[in-house]
Amino acid sequence: MIRVLLAAVCLVLFAATLQAGGLDDLKAANAAAEQGKADDAIRLFTQALAASDLSPADQFAARKGRGNEYTGKSLIADAFERLDQARGLRADAIADFTAALDSKTDDASVYIARAQVYDLNGQYDSAITDFDAALKLNNSPVTLVQRAGSQSAKGDYDPAVADYTAALAIITKDAKDPKDGDLNTSDIYSQRGYVQFIAARYAAAAADFDKALTLGSAARSGDVLWLPYQAAWLHIARARAGENDAEELARNAGKIDLKQWPGTLIAFFLGQAKADQLSPPSSHGAMGRGRECNLSFFSGEQALVKNDGAEAARLFVRARAVCNIHTVHYLAAGVELKRLGK
């Protein structure tokens, strides 16, 4: 009898040790994730799941956590143009988010997380379906904006504009609190402006960019990048709409350092600098490539204004080569090339 009791106690202690191991790994994985140690987090989440002793709630948390880490690593792979690796990591993320949703079908955050991965993969229909599911659970303006991004990338411009408009309606209904997290009305007007621009609705795009500039100037007064880029988008939208914005451009230029990038881009639009004077000394590194991306795209748009389709096509091809594949510049340059028959 004593032996039987001892054996039973040992089994209980062994099971408790296993459970503690799985939970300890999960806690350590969450801590590693918070510290930005993605590889350690993934390893620890995997160990926690392999222990097979986590509760359903903890298994859900581990799947969701590991999926988020795979997604983050995929973005880094994209930045270094390791596209096959990025897609492999996103496949792992989708598998984890799908497993999490199999055990808990009413978590909007996981539908959103999986939708974001589908969007990064260019699987826009799947992304929209997941955003739809999330919105049924929580009609968030942030999710509306994200769904609009997938719709725009797919080429469904009217639904995208409708989602941005709906998001604006939600966050502006209470004037005392016009924000939802990091989302604000200025950002949404800008993003709706991008869609209108890509859809060749240039006057509507200009109206949105102007509204974004008006609403965002005070909050972004310390951001030396925001105003020049906002003014650049507004200018090309005006120009593509056939509007004379000389006074407006000069007024905006008066608030910008025209000798420093990206202020030099505005100097280019004003005819005070030539495009070849603005070229970065090197395209190596994120900053150099980002600068060349903007220069190539905006110069291409300026070439279209001057009816120089050949030069515009050359510059848009360059933009597609140097812009991050997840930027509006990359998307818009591709659309422009299609319209040019390239």
Can you describe what's shown?
40% of the residues are buried. This protein is mainly alpha-helical. The chain has a domain at 16-138: Tetratricopeptide repeat domain (Serine Threonine Protein Phosphatase 5, Tetratricopeptide repeat, Alpha Horseshoe). It is elongated and about 70 Å long. Residues 1-19 and 176-180 have low confidence and may be disordered. It has 17 helices and no strands.
SSE layout:
Layout: H1 2-34, H2 38-50, H3 56-79, H4 83-103, H5 108-120, H6 124-137, H7 141-154, H8 157-172, H9 185-198, H10 202-216, H11 226-240, H12 246-253, H13 263-269, H14 275-278, H15 285-305, H16 309-322, H17 328-339
Helix pairs in contact: 1-2, 1-3, 2-3, 3-4, 4-5, 5-6, 6-7, 7-8, 8-9, 9-10, 10-11, 11-13, 11-15, 15-16, 15-17, 16-17
Briefly say what this structure is.
This protein has 342 residues and is mainly alpha-helical. The protein contains 17 helices and no strands. Helices cover 75% and strands 0% of the residues.
- Write down the oligomeric state: single chain
CATH domain topology of one domain: Serine Threonine Protein Phosphatase 5, Tetratricopeptide repeat
Round the Cα radius of gyration to an integer and report it.
25 Å
- If you average the pLDDT, what whole number results? 89
Low-confidence stretches: 1-19, 176-180
- CATH class bucket of one domain: Mainly Alpha
Please give the CATH architecture of one domain. Answer: Alpha Horseshoe
The CATH superfamily of one domain bears the name Tetratricopeptide repeat domain
Largest sheet: none
Question: What is the helix/strand order?
Answer: HHHHHHHHHHHHHHHHH
Q: Helix amount, in percent?
A: over 70%
The separation of the N and C termini measures 85 Å
Q: Could you say which overall geometry the principal axes of the C-alpha atoms support?
A: elongated
Number of helices: 17
Question: In terms of structural class, how would the helical and strand content be classed?
Answer: mainly alpha
E-strand count = 0
Query: What fraction strand?
Result: under 5%
